[in-house]
Structures are given as structure tokens and as C-alpha cells.
């Protein structure tokens, strides 16, 4: 099986539409002489699943019809949106690039990360149609996976020691295109800042909330950010999910201490 054909099957829905165009161009200099084993970071599924996902390329689905996100689709979406955020402030900081590479290594191991970063560098040379890419992701990716993408993007923005207003605006725009609510956006954003009301923002409540409302908010957010929500993405992405979950727990523990309940 040729590498291009295999990649198309492994990616599923992400190999169609604007994402497919970006990946196709990025792969142009990589596929010559490559073999299937050269691209393990794109994820694999059994042939029946691949065939099913290929049949959905270029289609639009309701939330009820949306297929479960596959690792390859998530990883390619992550690579593209990471490129958008890194270039948001008009220059590419080496610390942000190093953060992306470090995250790939922690998720995939060194060899697989090197393959992913090679593709990322080719994506990074392109002009990304952000809105079209995000709308494709919104139509096809489950909500929990989109929240995981957003969490990763804030991590990139903070990698150089500060999150600029331009980066915040870019991530906010991406969140909107992805169909992520303002409350979910503020919750994840608060995980990367230090302020007196961060705990409330993470739990998606205000300081006027009663103790019972704080407890209810904690249960709701713990369920929303539970690592099991992204089990389908593979163990590689569990660490990021667990970090969101820990932040919810820490926010709740902080309010318990402050309020004395």
C-alpha cells in the first residue's frame, strides 16, 4: 500500500477539506521514498474503521452524528492549530517551538515525535485558513477533544513565559470557530493565569455562588474534564486531560479552604 493512500485511511475525516489540502502539501516533501512505518504519529485503526471514516470526508454532521475522534485526526488538527498560535504575534519564538517538540516527545516518544515535528515544520510554512480549518474540526470532532486542543494551545502561548494579547485574541477566535463556549474558554484560560478569582473561573461560577453551587459546579466540571472523556485519543493524550482534571480539583480545594466547608 502506498504511503499516501495509507495516510488517507489513517487520518479519516481530517484528510478531506481544508485540513486535507494542508496536510497534502506538507507531506509533499516527506513521502518520497517513505514507508508506512515512517508516519506512526498519524494513528492507525482497523481497515473497517478507516473505510468508514473515509466515507465521511467532506460531509457535515450534527453533534448526534459526529463520529468519535480518532488519534490521527486529533494529532493533525493539533499540529495545524499549533502553527496558527505560534505565528499569532508575528514571529516564532524558539521557546514555543521547543514546547511543541517537548510535548510531542512526552506524548509519542523521541522517534515518533521527530516524525511529527517534521510534518509540523512543513505545515508551519503555509498560510493557514484558520476559520475553514476550525469549522471542519467543529463539524467532525467531539467536544471533549476540542477542549483538549484548546488546553494545548494555551500551553504553547505560555511557553515563552508570557501570553500576549495577540495570542489570547487568536486562541479566543479559534475557540469561537470550534464551537467552544465563552465559559469553557474562560475556564481553560484561567488554568494558565494567577489571579484571585481563577478558582471561580475554572469552575465556571462567580464569587456570588453559594457553597452548594460551588459543590455542584465541581461535580459538573470534574465530569466534563475527566480523563476518561478522551480515552479514545490514546494514552498519549491522557496527561493533558489529567492536568485539566487536577486544576478543577485544586480550584475546588482552594474554595473549600477559603469558605471553610
TrEMBL record:
Keyword entries, A-Z: Membrane, Transmembrane, Transmembrane helix
Domain of life assignment: Bacteria
Source species taxonomy: Bacteria, Pseudomonadati, Bacteroidota, Flavobacteriia, Flavobacteriales
Organism: Subsaximicrobium wynnwilliamsii
UniProt-recorded name of the protein: Molecular chaperone DjiA
Keyword Aminoacyl-tRNA synthetase appears in the UniProt entry: no
Biased composition regions of type Polar residues, renumbered to the chain: 52-70
Region (Disordered): 41-70
InterPro entries for this protein: DjlA_DnaK_co-chaperone (IPR050817), DjlA_N (IPR007791), DnaJ_domain (IPR001623), J_dom_sf (IPR036869), TerB-like (IPR029024)
SUPFAM superfamilies given in the database record: Chaperone J-domain, TerB-like
Pfam family, one: TerB
Signal peptide: none
Amino acid at each position: 500500500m502506498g504511503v499516501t493512500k495509507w495516510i488517507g485511511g489513517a487520518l479519516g475525516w481530517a484528510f478531506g477539506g481544508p485540513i486535507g489540502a494542508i496536510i497534502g502539501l506538507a507531506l509533499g516533501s516527506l513521502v518520497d521514498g517513505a514507508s508506512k512505518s515512517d508516519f506512526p504519529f498519524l494513528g492507525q485503526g482497523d481497515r473497517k474503521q478507516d473505510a468508514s471514516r473515509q466515507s465521511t470526508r467532506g460531509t457535515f454532521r450534527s453533534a448526534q452524528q459526529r463520529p468519535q475522534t480518532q488519534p490521527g485526526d486529533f494529532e493533525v488538527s493539533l499540529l495545524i492549530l499549533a502553527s496558527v498560535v505560534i505565528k499569532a504575534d508575528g514571529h516564532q519564538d524558539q521557546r514555543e517551538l521547543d514546547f511543541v517538540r517537548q510535548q510531542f516527545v512526552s506524548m509519542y516518544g523521541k522517534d515518533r515525535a521527530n516524525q511529527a515535528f517534521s510534518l509540523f515544520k512543513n505545515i508551519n510554512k503555509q498560510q493557514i485558513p484558520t476559520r475553514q480549518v476550525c469549522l471542519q474540526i467543529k463539524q467532525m470532532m467531539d467536544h471533549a477533544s476540542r477542549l483538549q486542543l484548546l488546553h494545548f494551545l494555551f500551553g504553547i502561548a505560555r511557553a515563552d513565559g508570557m501570553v500576549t494579547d495577540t495570542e489570547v485574541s487568536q486562541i479566543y477566535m479559534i475557540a469561537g470557530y470550534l464551537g467552544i463556549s465563552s465559559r469553557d474558554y474562560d475556564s481553560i484560560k484561567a488554568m494558565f493565569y494567577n489571579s484571585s478569582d481563577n478558582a471561580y473561573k475554572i469552575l465556571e461560577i462567580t464569587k456570588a455562588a453559594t457553597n452548594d453551587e460551588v459543590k455542584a459546579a465541581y461535580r459538573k466540571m470534574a465530569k466534563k474534564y475527566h480523563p476518561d472523556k478522551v480515552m479514545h485519543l490514546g494514552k498519549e493524550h491522557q496527561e493533558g486531560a489529567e492536568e485539566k482534571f487536577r486544576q478543577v480539583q485544586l480550584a475546588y480545594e482552594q474554595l473549600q479552604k477559603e469558605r471553610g466547608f
